[in-house]
Design brief:
Blueprint (H helix, E strand, L loop, with lengths): L5 E6 L7 H11 L5 E6 L3 H9 L5 E5 H6 L5 E6 L7 E5 L11 E4 L2 H10 L4 E3 L1 H7 L12 H13 L5 E5 H4 L8 E4 L24 E6 L13 H16 L2 H4 L2 E8 L1 H13 L5 H6 E7 L5 E5 L8 E9 L6 E9 L4 H21 L27
Helix pairs in contact: 8-12
């Protein structure tokens, strides 16, 4: 019988990012193929230093930690399946049904703007702004334990001082009591709701867990653990993220996912059945002369379509009021690395549109027929961050 590879995996206590719990599940799932030993290290800095000095074989971390710390001499050896990247609202009601002028605490600038877009009346504040406004001088968010911070937010909600608070899924998984949560999602499961409910494209690089090793580690040993889809989505998402100016990274939503062609086509059929006209759907689907039992049009797949899975890229950025936003979607086939060309075009289009929407408009020398007189007046760009 072939001996199972022995691997020591370094982990840290929960950083409220979901990595620790996912790593434990991955180890449990693959125990038949590996002889794992999991060792806990107090802090990520110590864990990275220990790995560099030869302690352990792998270190579990998030891609945000990978980008944050000094990882010279290390490499990413495997991606775990991506966790759900969306954030959640902890409240008694969905955001649509919160009371007028509801107070919601949120420390993510992108989601603050998305909530303002959804409902202008909601009073969205950061933790620091809220506690400053109520004169809680002893409250130091930076020094406070994360568990204590979440407990304080929940106590404020119970006391009806606030109506809800927004946290990441990793933070929600660490709450000690059962709470009612509402996903701030993209309505991917019910595509027709995309036109009826506000969508929340998640902050970039959420939900990625990686296993890091020293340079020279035989990555092929843990090939069965690696999730190629997560790796590919990270590469595309990270390229778009790094192409943005630093002041835009905190207010941009980016999400990349791999989808089966059949899943995309089913969504288009659903949208067409609900009387939504989609140009891209018409390129994929051709109406059949035959009708279904409920008299709906049957749709056949176009013969011209490239078969195989797709990379779906979602991007949005909002102004400081949430009233003006730029949203872009691109779907590219995996075949022949066509998605890589599509990613480059997508980045170029983002830069062009951002520059265009921020430009001031000079006074028009002549008025276009049918437009009001004030249309020719000079005006500032419509997208102000």
């Amino acid at each position: 019988m072939e001996e199972k590879p022995r691997l020591e995996v370094l982990t840290t206590p929960s950083n409220f990012d979901g990595v620790r719990l996912q790593t434990e599940k991955a180890i449990e799932k693959n125990r038949d193929f590996f002889n794992f030993k999991m060792s806990q290290v107090p802090h990520m800095e110590i864990a990275i230093d220990s790995l560099k000095k030869g302690t352990g074989d792998l270190l579990a971390m998030s891609v945000k930690d990978w980008k944050k710390f000094d990882v010279e001499g290390l490499k990413i050896s495997a991606f775990l399946p991506r966790r759900e990247p969306t954030w959640v609202l902890v409240s008694d009601d969905k955001p649509e049904y919160l009371p007028f002028n509801a107070i919601v605490i949120c420390d993510n600038q992108l989601i603050i703007r998305q909530l303002k877009r959804m409902r202008e009346d909601i009073n969205v504040q950061t933790s620091e702004d809220y506690f400053t406004s109520v004169n809680v001088n002893h409250f130091d968010i930076e020094q406070q334990d994360k568990h204590q911070h979440l407990d304080n937010l929940e106590q404020l909600r119970i006391d009806e001082a606030i109506d809800g608070y927004v946290i990441s899924r990793g933070e929600f998984s660490q709450t000690k009591t059962r709470l009612r949560r509402h996903t701030l999602g993209m309505q991917r499961e019910k595509p027709s709701q995309e036109f009826e409910r506000s969508t929340f494209i998640s902050p970039p690089l959420e939900g990625f867990s990686i296993l890091v090793s020293r340079n020279g580690f035989p990555t092929k040993v843990i090939e069965r653990i690696n999730d190629n889809s997560a790796k590919l989505c990270f590469e595309v998402e990270n390229s778009i993220y790094e192409s943005l100016d630093d002041d835009l990274k905190q207010i941009a939503g980016i999400y990349v996912e791999q989808k089966k062609l059949s899943t995309i086509l089913k969504q288009y059929v659903k949208l067409i059945d609900d009387s939504y006209a989609l140009k891209i759907g018409e390129n994929y689907l051709i109406p059949s002369k035959k009708k279904s039992r409920d008299s709906r049009t049957k749709w056949n797949i176009s013969r011209k379509i490239i078969q195989g899975p797709r990379i779906c890229i979602y991007f949005e950025i909002l102004d400081n009021s949430g009233n003006v936003s730029l949203e872009m979607v691109r779907i590219e086939p995996l075949e022949d690395n066509m998605y890589d060309r599509g990613k480059s075009v997508f980045i170029t289009e983002i830069k062009f549109l951002l520059e265009l929407l921020q430009q001031d408009h000079d006074e028009l020398k002549r008025l276009i027929s049918g437009l009001p007189e004030e249309y020719k007046n000079p005006r500032p760009g419509i997208l102000k961050f």
